[in-house]
Amino acid sequence: MKTYSTAASLRAAINTEKRSGKTIAFVPTMGNLHEGHLRLVQHAKQHADIVVVSIFVNPLQFGANEDLSNYPRTLAADKEKLFAEGAQYLFLPHASEIYPEGMDSHTKISVPELSDNHCGASRPGHFTGVATIVAKLFNIVQPDTAVFGEKDFQQLSVIRKMVSDLCMPINIIGVATARAQDGLALSSRNGYLNTEQRSIAPTLHRVLQETREAIACGYDSYSNLEQHAKISLNKAGLKSDYFTICDARTLRPITGDTEEVVILAAAKLGTTRLIDNVTLNVNPSADWGMLAAN
Ligand code: PAF
Hints:
This protein is an alpha/beta fold. Helices cover 37% and strands 19% of the residues.
């Protein structure tokens, strides 16, 4: 695995690969890699000849009171995992190259409508930070394909919209959430949980699944379901931030045109914020019976 820390050196290497006819798949990350990230690399390998992974803890997507300085940095272990998984290129840019004149004056990409609700409401500016760094990394790497986890469902929606709106010739692939045996979605933030919190954390996925089952059975009083779910989470010791049943395409309330439902949830355990989601395919002209895999 070759490691590059400047955009020019990475681009030169990628251009050589492209000239010899190779296709490029890209997996952007913030490091602290776990099985979920490695699955993204595995999917990337299935879609292209060369897999490029980036590790950059992007300050622009962190709020002032968030965990940027404490964000786990585990570069040596990350490199070993990527090497073992067969990634060919690792990009480790410096903040001084990404934001040479600081973040305030840097061009920003904002994706309206999808960015302001759910996680965007609790984390103002977060998705502008994500869209901006992802667009910048896309311009540096110029991949044919880019791979993201479906755990960050709203992030994936924002990126798909940005790519479509800005006519970026990149195929975006979403990969199903990797979970622990008890259902907890794998996340770098799980490492912050103490033993008691770790035993409570799977409740988030359990409540999401129960809600999905209720909808699949035809229960359509969504605000009641949301209320009930929040109460269940709070009883278990999770402080619900949001729990929303919405249209998977618009991330807005369900309408008669909704074909896929997503139930998005975020909750805090102590100071650790967990997010998760489940989806449900619905066919408005037939019945509501088809459960999606995630
Ligand atoms: O999902 C993440 O790890 C980050 O938001 C991303 C996409 C790498 C952008 O910094």
